[in-house]
Protein 1
Amino acid sequence: QVQLVESGGGLVQPGGSLRLSCAVSRSITAYETMGWYRQAPGKERELVATITRGSATTYADSVKGRFSISRDNVKNTLYLQMNSLKAADTAVYYCNARYRVLASRYDIWGQGTQVTVSS
């Protein structure tokens, strides 16, 4: 069974930076798309950033210019560099791996890592 394990969350002051990591237990080149999502208390889970097998990236408007998603296919690890953090970025951040079998799409999720932005 494939496992996604996030790390790097924590408490940071507004304007600070964090780098999240997602270690995957198999080759990440197997996945069509990988991404980061987040869920704040009382809110639905939302997309933060995605990166395709070909390294094309997309970002939520709220994080453009501040966050950067990347992948290391040798280490089988996904990253999210978060700069200029705001209180509104406080959430549990989840790693996602997506693949397709014929016409069906499947998602694998990590357990999440808490990011708290507060002074």
Protein 2
Amino acid sequence: QVQLVESGGGSVQAGGSLRLSCAASGRTASIYIMGWFRQAPGKEREFVAAVTWSGGSPSYADSVKGRFTISRDNAKNTGYLQMNSLKPEDTAVYYCAAKIPFKGYDYWGQGTQVTVSS
């Protein structure tokens, strides 16, 4: 089992920045990919970014490319999502998720709220 706990959400004005953290515990050696997703009110959960636990092959949704950066620190068993140039449409609950080999995103955090005001 893998447990994930997000932190770092909050309220910012448009153009501001936030850094989300995702602390992993449990069988962290089994993590293959860490991803970030978000869900805005009345909308479906959508993919934001992902990176392999080894640190390679970051991928991003088109809507956040050039503004968000995903990273991880294996020594701390923590993943990060640096969010710059935030827009009101980035307002959502952000979730981190972990994928183990040959499986989907089986492990999810509880989510952290990000609110961007214009």
